[in-house]
Amino acid sequence: MIRTSHRSFSSNRTIFLSALVLVTLTASILSFIESGERFLHTTSWETKIRASAQIRRPNGISVLVTGAAGFIGTHVSIALKTRGDGVVGVDNFDNYYALSLKETRRALLDFHGVFIVDGDINDRRLLAILFDTVAFTHVMHLAAQVGVQYAVDNPYAYVHSNIASLVTLLERCKAADPQPAVVWASSGSVYGVNINNKVPFSESDRVDRPVSIYASTKRTGEEITLTYNRFYGLSITGLRFFTVYGPWGRPDMAYFSFIRNILEGKPITVYRAKNHTDMARDFIYIDDVVKGCVASLDTSGRSVGSGRSKNGSAPYRIFNLGNASPVTVPMLVSILEENLRMKATTNVVDMNGNGDDLFAQANISLAEKELGYKPTTDLETGLKEFVKWYLWYYGKPFDQNRNV
Ligand SMILES: O=C(O)[C@H]1O[C@H](OP(=O)(O)OP(=O)(O)OC[C@H]2O[C@@H](n3ccc(=O)[nH]c3=O)[C@H](O)[C@@H]2O)[C@H](O)[C@@H](O)[C@@H]1O
After folding, report:
1. Is the CB of 242 under 6 A from ligand 1?
2. Closest ligand 1 atom, CA of 253?
3. Could you give the CA distance from residue 292 to residue 42 in angstroms, rounded to a whole number?
4. Which listed residue, of 139, 153, 166, 325, carries a Cα 20 to 30 Å from 55's Cα?
């Protein structure tokens, strides 16, 4: 959805990035000043929020996007704003990965007229002020502590971000009148080690054997949101994202860290299952995921409660958002090598039971039927776009003569 033609990659990169840096700097200085006064919610802060939340199309929606400076959050916010919806972002700008990338995404959002509130959604007062300032029709909840392996050493981060913050947000949505509809990021990792012994994975499969703290907090989130649907009438749509990749992506993910190491001539580590089976993922390109998110918002139905009471029942839905075509990690590496015309130095390591799922493949027929979801970007095409963005963003000289 964020289009930058190849020509502009080379010629206007410096101009575009310098403009972004300037906007970032201004936005950061302003947000620093305002963040200090955040709780006085100065009129300029409120004015920015109201302007950002303004709906500019007939039957438009007004969406609070949590995690708006994140990878999927940035793309979804821009897609909604571009079509005329009201969008306000909130992000705690944590340093799980490079803050500079989040700040540049903030500038990109600013460029598109999306204001991001710098704050933590576990902050009840901040949420109260936000919901008093804007009557959100929808919440796109993408803020989360992500990463499968990071959970091994940092379990509390997942409880704070994926459980405590979720409940704080749902409590605020429950109290709103009218209540917004909620679309939120679950995860394909809830399927665990393929306990169903069937592929592809379907939403009706058993998901009571998650293999990481990360996956178990996402599974718990599905149970918690069901409670807020059944008792308080919130419309809930959970999206089980598979392995999402693309421009402005997450540096902690394999596809991103591999390209960085290959370009820097450093080795990459390729995990393999104990019986020497290659790991495989259902890689899904960001533009396809954005379409799934927007379609979920558009078909969310209404919440039917207010406070502790509700009038009727609201929709509770879960969808797989994947590509339905798994690719092995070694294949991912060879596609990157082909795009970069460089060979990777690969260390193959047998999995250490770090909570990584061996295999993932989404059955997307339910999303196709209910959301009209139809992924169109295969991994080769998507990675080509990602490599172009990466070289443009990090200003890497791309030597066409490099041997593979
Ligand atoms: O499907 C999902 O729900 C999850 O997808 C990704 O998790 P993952 O698929 O494990 O993505 P990566 O961390 O990029 O790993 C992709 C594959 O590469 C492998 N890998 C990762 C890193 C590495 O250095 N080497 C390596 O072989 C992993 O074992 C995995 O098989 C995201 O990181 C999660 O936030 C998301 O929830």
Report:
1. yes
2. 14
3. 36
4. 166
Cβ–ligand 1 distance for 279 under 6 Å, the answer yes
3-state helix, strand, coil in the chain (%, to 5): 45, 15, 40
Mutate to test the pocket of ligand 1, among 203, 281, 321 (most ligand atoms within 8 A of CB): 281
Residue of the nearest CA to atom 9 in ligand 1? 243
pLDDT of 147 reads 87
Pairing label, strands 346-350, 283-285: unpaired
Decide: 327 in ligand 1 pocket, CB within 6 A: no
Domain boundaries, the chain: 6-243+285-324+359-377
Q: State if residue 271 touches ligand 1 by the CB under 6 angstroms criterion.
A: yes
Q: What residues in the chain have per-residue pLDDT under 70? A: 1, 3-41, 193-196, 352-355, 397-404
Measured CA to CA, the distance from residue 81 to residue 312 in angstroms comes to: 32
**What's the start-to-end Cα distance of the chain, in Å?**
31
DSSP state of 201: B
Instruction: Give the pLDDT score at 4.
Output: 45
ipTM above 0.90, yes or no: yes
Q: What is the pLDDT of residue 9?
A: 40
DSSP tag of 354? S
Mutate to test the pocket of ligand 1, among 274, 329, 354, 364 (most ligand atoms within 8 A of CB): 329
Q: Which pLDDT score, from 0 to 100, does residue 395 have?
A: 87
From the list 225, 245, 248, the residue with the least C-alpha distance to 289 is: 245
Q: What is the pLDDT of residue 72?
A: 98
Q: What is the pLDDT of residues 290-343, one digit of tens each?
A: 999 999 999 999 999 988 889 999 999 999 999 999 999 999 999 999 999 999
Q: Which amino acid residue places its CA nearest to atom 8 of ligand 1?
A: 243
Can you tell me the distance from the alpha carbon of 354 to that of 83, in angstroms, rounded to the nearest whole number?
A: 41
What is the predicted pLDDT for the residue at 41? 56
Which residue's CA lies nearest to atom 18 of ligand 1? 254
**SS3 (DSSP) at 38:** helix
Residue 276's pLDDT is what?
86
For domain 6-243+285-324+359-377, which CATH number applies: 3.40.50.300, 3.40.50.720, 2.80.10.50, 3.40.30.10? 3.40.50.720
Q: Which atom of ligand 1 is nearest to the CA of 270?
A: 27
Atom of ligand 1 nearest to the CA of 241: 3
Report in angstroms the alpha-carbon separations of 151 from 71, 164, 230. 19, 16, 30
